[in-house]
Amino acid sequence: IGVTHSPDYSMWKKNEYASNGVRDFAEKGEAWALMKEIEEAGEKIQSVHGIFSAPAITSGTGQTSTELEVHPRHPLVSFVVRIVPSPDWFVGIDSLNLCEGDRWMDEVSVDLYPYDAGTDSGFTFSSPNFATIPQETVQEV
């Protein structure tokens, strides 16, 4: 799940607490709360221009694609991709600017690293659900 947005919106940030929507998506693949958070931010401060998603990769390797629309006032892209199985791990991008100066980037290539949402204390891919209390901040795995 991803969004194109302005600088005053944040889906998630390293070293900050994951929202309930990011937690639900990272832990269980449930997107409802995250979609609601995105839509509310778009309505409240008009910071979200578009929402996008891509089909899942169902095996250990593969590729997927999607299309998204950016706007001069909404040149940033953020997304989360759930890692399955895992306690609360994901890969993603936080506020990647697709515009350099006055020009849109023709091509972007980014290495993605796994993050721990800080909401589940499992240490391996197949750990049972064990809530992290108190919640920790998003960190690289």
From TrEMBL:
Residues 1-141 form the Spondin domain. PROSITE patterns: SPONDIN. One of its GO terms (biological process) is cell adhesion. This is Spondin-2. One of its GO terms (cellular component) is extracellular matrix. Gene3D superfamilies: F-spondin domain. PANTHER family: SPONDIN, SPONDIN-2. InterPro entries: Spondin/Thrombospondin_T1, Spondin_N, Spondin_N_sf. It comes from Manacus vitellinus (golden-collared manakin). Coiled coil: none annotated.
